[in-house]
Amino acid sequence: MGQTLPELEYDKLAPTRDRLRDVALVLSSLQRAFVPKHPRDWQYGLEVNMRGMCTQPFKVNDEEVRASLDLVRQRVRLGTDSWRLVDCDGPELLAEVKVWLQSAGADAELENPPFTGSSSFDPGQAAHYAEALWWLEEQFRELRMTLKKGVASPILLYPHHFDLSLVWFPHDDERQLAVGWSTGDETVAEPYLYLSAYPEPAGFQTLKLPPEAHWQTEGFSGAILPYAALVGSPQPAALFESFAVQTFAAARPLLG
Fold first, then answer.
1. So what's the pLDDT on residue 2?
2. pTM over cut 0.85
3. What is the pLDDT of residues 127-147, one digit of tens each?
């Protein structure tokens, strides 16, 4: 995979991002109707794959099923059925999925998600988002391989905030370090990476960050690296490593 990252302009991306989020919310609702609750709520998150994102596997009438948001063909797929993203918003997809479940004879209640109501979909913006998602998921996987102790979460896309997340529990208890990628929100109105610790230990915000990053104290507490800094860097993978990998290693002793 190359080192060139697509630019993501928040104002241009946000309407399409909201459509993708609504679709992801439906997939998460479908997944949670069948996947048992995990002690750390991993049943909410979707997996990233080579075509976009998909549900964790679940069984309908003893047959293993996955629903997927295909960002290559820009379709939602479930069994042999599919729907174009440009034609199908969140509420419409939810209705289609319910019909699919009924036709499959599945007895399942789907939660009605808090949809954004986005009516916009730009195929070009969706393609840019997909490129960024795949690149960052690869960086998260490389970081995860360095976490030799404790428990590392799966790398999951959580639809409610629409962020990619990896959480490390070095002592397999409530103490944790998290890295994530958000496409922007009310607190930070641009795509960004974040690092956080819970409970936040003394000295966490004295850790050295690369000059492109800063500590966020309003809205939430953690370190922020703007996605634009990765785009503008001649070595984005090295910048990610200095922000996430090295900070994880430095923060680990602070958790005890």
1. 45
2. yes
3. 999 999 999 999 999 999 999
Two tokens, residue 207: 């850790």
Per-residue pLDDT tens over the stretch 145-189: 999 999 999 999 999 999 999 999 999 999 999 999 999 999 999
Distance CA 221, CA 210 (A): 17
3-state secondary structure of 192: strand
Hey, which bits of 44-125 come out as E strands? 46-49, 52-54, 58-60, 63-65, 67-70, 75-78, 81-84
Torsion of CA 109, 115, 117, 120, to 10 degrees: -100
Q: What is the DSSP letter of 172?
A: S
> How many CB atoms within 10 Å of residue 134?
16
Per DSSP, what are the bridge partners of residue 64?
Answer: 59
Can you read off the two tokens belonging to residue 144?
């995860």
Asked if 237 and 5 touch (Cβ cutoff 8 Å), the reply is no
